[in-house]
Write a structure and sequence with these properties.
The chain is about 30% helix and about 25% strand. With about 170 residues, the chain is α+β, with helices and mostly antiparallel strands. The chain has a domain at about 20-120 and about 165: Electron Transport, Fmn-binding Protein, Chain A (Pnp Oxidase, Chain A). The longest helix has 16 residues, at about 30-45. The chain is globular. Mean pLDDT is about 85; it is low at about 1-25.
């Protein structure tokens, strides 16, 4: 007797991504952000002007293999550098997970790096530092949780905001 099992809608997603249903969280940018703000920041960053730590992240697409770029905020906290995804599990997050490495660009300078994903229990101080620095820009994506929130609140939202430590 043969038993067939219908494929799960998450069969194509790696197990470490499926383990938590909240991992699908993604907040799509509005028209102004997608068509005006992000392109402006990316253009300034490509020209070598960092706006509060901005960089252009370049990472190989997990399906296409083509290099994809997006503006990001590079956080320096306790001597380490981090990329935080305020909008959740975005395409750049998924691509960086798959590739494991990328490139941070500022003007003509380019730095290759390995992205090491930070566990949820270790995120609260990083999220707090990120919110202290960029709350006005990204606070809306954190569901009312700010830099002065208790650790328990930051831990509660941690699964919704991937964080990568930059390693040379």
């Amino acid at each position: 007797m043969t038993i067939s099992v219908a494929p799960s809608p998450t069969d194509h997603i790696p197990r470490h991504v499926v383990h938590n249903q909240r991992m699908a969280t993604f907040k799509r940018p509005g028209w102004f952000t997608a068509h005006v703000f992000n392109p402006l920041i990316a253009a300034l960053t490509r020209a070598g002007v960092s706006v509060w730590g901005s960089r252009v992240l370049a990472v190989r697409g997990r399906s296409s293999g083509a290099v994809r770029t997006t503006p990001v905020n590079l956080l320096v906290h306790d001597g380490e550098r981090y990329l935080v995804a305020p909008r959740g599990h975005t395409q750049w997050v998924r691509n960086l997970r798959a590739a494991g490495e990328g490139e941070l660009r500022l003007g003509r300078r380019s730095e290759r790096f390995r992205g090491i994903e930070v566990g949820d229990d270790d995120k609260p101080p990083i999220l707090r530092a990120y919110l202290r620095r960029w709350r006005m820009e990204v606070g809306v994506f954190f569901g009312g949780v700010g830099p002065d929130a208790p650790d328990a609140e930051l831990r509660r939202i941690a699964p919704d905001h991937p964080v990568f430590r930059i390693s040379g």
